[in-house]
Amino acid sequence: MIKVNNVSKKYTLKNREIFALKETSFSIEDNKLTVIYGKSGSGKTTLLNIMAGLLPPSNGSVSLDGVDPYLLGDKELSLFRNKNIGYIPQGTSSVSSLTVLENVMLPAIIYEPNDIKEKAVSLLKDLGLENLMDSYPAELSGGELRRVSIARAIINSPKMIFADEPTNDLDKENTEFVLKLLKEKSREGMSVVIVSHDEAAMKYADDVIRMGSIQ
Amino acid sequence: MSVKKLIIKNIIKRPVKTTLLSSMALLMAFAILAGANLSKSLIRGLNSMEARLGADIIVIPEGAQSEEELKNIYFKGTPENFYMDKSIVSDLASIEGVEDYSIQYFLASSVSDCCSAPVQIVGFDPENDFVVAPWIKDNFKGQPGKDEIIAGSSLSVQTGESLKIYGIDCLVVGKLGSTGTGLDTAVYANEETIKHLIEASKEVGLSMVGEKSPDETVSAVYIKVKKGYDISVVSSTININFKDRVEAVRTKSMISDTVKRLDDVSKIIYALVTGIWVFSIIIMGLVFSVSIGERKSEFALLRAMGFSKIKIVSLIFTESMIICLIGSVLGIVLSLVIIISFGNMIEGYLGLPFLLPNFLNTVLYSFFALFITVLTGPITASISTMGVCREDIGNALRR
Predict the structure, then answer these.
(1) Do A145 and A94 form a contact (C-beta atoms < 8 A)?
(2) Residues of chain B by 3-state class (helix, strand, coil), percent to 5
(3) How many beta-carbon pairs under 8 angstroms link A with B?
(4) Strands lying side by side in the sheet with A2-13
(5) In terms of CB atoms within 10 Å, which end of chain A has fewer, N or C?
(6) Which of B9, B300, B306 lies nearest to residue A82, judging by beta carbons?
């Protein structure tokens, strides 16, 4: 269960307070695909990052399976993220010096040596990337890189997946593919939270949280 | 797959950054080790020179050129001939404050004799000499006999070979260790041999002693002053009493110019090393700062995957340490090759005594250069990384 209690985020810029996220509260049940839908600038990504333990809120608290990530020290929080959270960033982030296969295996070997190659290869096959395993990120298209991000996010079989605009800049075919895959993961027992302004995401959602624009 | 592989691939896959940083490390290690070796070589050269002079006062023939000629023998290895009447020896022995004395004979070989350049022949009395004999004893057991010589370290001739000097075959019975002074290009003989050679030089018309017999001349008298006596007073007494015959030179004043020049050269070396070190730190800092700035979103991604701040800093620390280690090792090897190969050329260029540090000191200086360089890069990189790690991951990922 993911709980968001009175969470808000503000920044101070030249003695002026700017709200990136107004006070928000809601709960997300386990094993569901939840879409946080809203216009650009509504604070969707800020909310997702707060929920994923990547951005401390200015006020309020977050509970991920009963754990408030912001009460943990950096070491404990990092371990918690590694074991429980799969994060799919917006854009095409990846480690440029590693091959596609190595990028996917990376989260699994941070804390202990792990013979994960077989699982990573199987994941890449499922995602249609088997021919690109030895390629470097610079050689891949946007859609391919997004699929690499998904494989990397699920390699550790996390309890929760947070995806920031996973279908942004993707063609229709790739969009359907990515959303179907995430839906499948929620059915397999992962709680999936997607931030999107893409209407296509709605038809895969078990729950939708709509966000208004910040005044 | 392991985190080590990530480090290695980060090094290999960023060749421009790796080459630039390892070049800076190479430059830094080279400068530190070369500077330390040069400075130590000059100090050792001077100490060796002081030890070789081995007396408080040197008495040489009166004349404007004699002191310069003596310096030429010691500092430049230029062979010289100068002589004075031997009767001065007993006069000097009677001066108050003189504890002991040694006499030496200097003879320059002719170019056509043995070597590509004239060689300085130094004659001494192995029984009574306190200047050359103790040094020679360190390298050669026994005493050279008639027409036997001991060669300085810089001469290519080996023990058992012969040198023909003024038509006389002189057997090389020993080879001396390096002193870093002009004495390394000289050969040493007992009184009997040097007198034989002086006679031989007369026969070929190259005598510098004129009509006098070699028994009636000496080149220099080395004086030890008794404890409690002021060396400058004894020196002045000699200069006053034998004004027109000889000149007494304090050994300390003879090397005072060298000490000053060595001091100046050392200051230049330290300034250069410091300059190169600071320059390398600035360039390394800039390269790390730009490179780490470019990798901000990559670090944020690693943190989102579960890397802690300390793991990221340790990753960059190790990465930069390996790069600096490669550069440092190359810099140290290059520095040693240049210093060892061009030591003689540097000595000639500086015109100062130059004696390379021993093996243990060289190893210590190499480790010092390695330690400083290998730590400078990673510390600079870690400072830049800590700044990046302070940023919220969510914000960094959005860029």
Answers:
(1) yes
(2) 60, 15, 25
(3) 95
(4) A16-28, A2-13, A59-64
(5) C
(6) B306
How many alpha carbons fall within 13 Å on the CB side of residue B280?
29
The encoded tokens of residue B72 equal 């030429």
Q: What is the pTM of this model?
A: 0.73
Evaluate if residue B12 carries a pLDDT over 60: yes
Q: How does pLDDT run across A56-100, given as a tens digit for each residue?
A: 999 999 999 889 999 999 999 999 999 999 999 887 788 989 999
Give the number of C-alpha atoms closer than 13 A to the C-alpha of residue B15, restricted to the C-beta side: 0
B398 vs A111: CB contact, 8 Å cut-off? no
Long-range contact pairs involving B107-111 (C-beta distance under 8 Å, separation at least 24) = B107/B81, B107/B194, B107/B197, B107/B198, B107/B201, B107/B208, B108/B79, B108/B80, B108/B81, B109/B79, B109/B165, B109/B166, B110/B166, B110/B201, B110/B204, B110/B206
* Chain A residue with minimum CA distance to B15: A97
Parallel/antiparallel/unpaired status of strands B98-108 and B220-225:
antiparallel
CB-nearest to A74 from B2, B9, B308 is B308
Question: How far, in Å, CA of B39 to CA of B31, rounded?
Answer: 12
| B328 contacts B29 by C-beta, under 8 angstroms | yes
Chain A nearest-CA distance from B315, in A, is 11
Q: DSSP 3-state helix, strand, coil percentages of chain A (rounded to 5)?
A: 40, 25, 35
Q: Determine, for residues B6 and A106 on separate chains, whether the beta-carbon distance falls below 8 Å.
A: yes
Please indicate if any CB of chain A lies within 8 Å of the CB of B386. no
**Tokens describing residue B184:** 């390394």
Q: Which residue of A has its CA nearest to B299?
A: A95
Residues above pLDDT 90, as percent of chain A? 44
Assess contact for B248 and B238: CB atoms under 8 A.
yes
Question: Cα–chain-centroid distance for residue A51?
Answer: 10
